[in-house]
What we know:
By secondary structure, the protein is mostly helical. The protein is built from 15 helices and no strands.
Amino acid sequence: MSSVAPVRSSDDGSGPARRAGRAVGRALHFPARGIRRATHAHGAGESGLGRLIELHAINGAGDMLITVALASTVFFSVPTDEARGRVALYLGITMAPFTVLAPVIGPLLDRLPHGRRASMAAAMLARALLALMMSGAVATGGIQLYPAALGVLVASKSYGVVRSAVVPRLLPPKFSLVKANSRVTLAGLLATGAAAPLGAALHMLGPPWPLYGACVIFVWGTFAAFTLPHKVDEAKGERRARLSTHEAHSKRPGLRTVSRSVLCGLLANASMRALSGFLIFFLAFLLREHPLAGQSAAVSLGIVGVSAGVGNACGTAVGSWLRARAPEVIIAAVLCLTLGVAVLAAVFFSGLFMAVLGATAGFCQALAKLSLDAMIQRDVPESVRTSAFARSETLLQVAWVMGGAIGIVLPLNGVLGMSVAAAIVALGTTMALRGVLSTPHHHPGTSRPRVA
Length: 452
């Protein structure tokens, strides 16, 4: 009996299955290791920034799956006129209350500085549960879908506000805030782009499936939030900032007393965020009725959406490369560029100019936001800097909601829409130019805070 060779597992079929499993594991291991190496490079792993980058990627993927599920129900599944009514209902039930709630989010989260990890985990878990709730109503588009969508929106924006406040606490040595935000934003964009086809594939299985996928992703994010370093919850020496104050001698510094150029930069960024919300809603309906030449409505929307996404990613990359050495000038330059393209789109309205405006708006919005981050880092005292990021992000979210509301109520006239877009950017351009003019001129030999 001892001379009998041992029976190999491959003889009963378990060997090939086991080898296939190992092959799949290796196939997934190498990309995962490459992603981990990229997110943890240049000290980001040691500081904890790498884990925040990965958490933001999870957040972006989950939000995209919910967006796919809602779009298929509220927008794509019905004729344009009925879709406008459904989206208007969506805005009325979700966006309007959010406009009221958004200014409260920042101050409320300011009072929870020792629970930022728990706040981010709660935002993830809330969206996981709400995704399950919506899965039963997404096929019919029932009214119960909209309150749940409001909860998802509030949780998503709450996460965004806390994330903005957390980034400054996780900077590696000799790592700029602009570069850190660039990495975080780029990770979110890449994850969103990867989740879009996944959401479309899940939708082919049935309307609830993208929401099931979102639930799984957000549960993952709930646990990932607690892997952030404990210093995220530390608030030693922090104070709450106000967006403005009329008392120049106030002991509670606000953005206006610290730097007028920061306030102008914030308002300029608000116009860019309003433009983003406007273009999303207005072009979505316009291209359904008047798609690009020779293309279907879905392809037309895809072309403009991809253009905006590529522009945003390029703007993020360029912002990290420029390092925002002159943030006021960069904000003014990108808004002037966006204004010029918007005016051209209104005068020579065509599908090409709509795609170009989408790409330009994405590119310039990313650069403007990174420059605003650099200005806050430079001009706002460290004791209130975290709070300032939270307040500014809340204002930008409200601006996006207002722009989206304009886009849904405006008649579907391309020239009129592009004219309104130009007017929105013109308001921001005015504030950006005021910010440049209000920036103190420094003579050679005088010191100026380093923006890096």
